[in-house]
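Researcher: I need the complex structure. Ligand is NAI. Inputs:
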Amino acid sequence: MAKTHTITLIPGDGIGPEVTDAVVRILESTGVQFNWERFAAGAGAYEKHREYIPKELYHSIERNRVALKGPVTTPVGGGFPSINVTLRKKFELYANFRPIKNLPGIETRYPNVDLLIIRENTEGLYVGLEHEVVPGVIESLKIMTEKACTRISKWAFAYAEKHGRKKIHAIHKANIMKMSDGLFLRCAREVAKHYPDIAYGEHIIDNTCMQLVMNPYQYDTLLLENLYGDIVSDLCAAFVGGLGLVPGANLGAEAAIFEAVHGSAPDIAGKDMANPTALLQSSILMLRHIGEEAAADRVQAALEKTYTEKKSLTRDVGGSAGTQAFADAVIQVLAEAK
Ligand code: NAI
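Model: Output:
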């Protein structure tokens, strides 16, 4: 009998529930058996449970060790801390993996991009340690540890070696943040010594942004601390058609949470306009993670065929279809391939 995979499902808010519904429908049409444990998080969860992250959600991830997550809105300039960052820190999901690759059928200024973003996911400025020193003076702490810098470097080089990647650039601002980003570089260099077959380079973050836009093909794998990784992810998403497309995985020793790079997109939420491809590609990473390689290949092929034949594409990539109509098209292609 086929295995049933119990997965924690966090639909999130904004466009989260729409793209999550679309992706769950596609995944269920593959024939793989899922048992979804569904939880609200963020403001919606607080209204119901007086907790931004319900305890049951933590327990569910602890048990299942795999979650599929839609975006959760984070209030700007106040309010509760980011649910997304909290979950990553809580489960030590230290490697944020974001592949940037064109899909066939979407014309962009940059064809054939194949870039990997590997972002440290647990510290840097995202520890969120801020306080008012005296009125008018705020201190925000950037925490960098040898442990975290080394473990993300090891993850990046091990991944590159396993998947035949040729080059890693550590991205930094160690000319200004000599100690914190200096530590990041020292750790990356130390790990790089053990991988003589992988070329290692270092670029300063501001130059990197310019270099990326001028010629993204000069890079293969980018290794970044938390904030730079976040910013560069959105920049690189533009190479392949935007945030509606780019997937992500938050990986640690104990658990993995699969989510798109994009946020809750309040400007298009509730309008059946969001592109579910980014979450769908995240779910393909999830299928591989749980050992469902064949299903992952089938969904990837169906997605690519849907784009190649320009069936029911969403507005962000030049179509006029809605979120659910796009999902229906992928489901139909999957069914035809059986
Ligand atoms: P965003 O990523 O939500 O949206 C940026 C732009 O991309 C908007 O124009 C939006 O319409 C478009 N977009 C995003 N996803 C799309 C999709 N699937 N299909 C078509 N267009 C799409 O970034 P924004 O507006 O800066 O953030 C909104 C909220 O999301 C904030 O509260 C932020 O903190 C949160 N956020 C949550 C994340 C997560 O849950 N992992 C990640 C990033 C942001």
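Model: Summary of the prediction. Residues 146-162 form the longest helix (17 residues).
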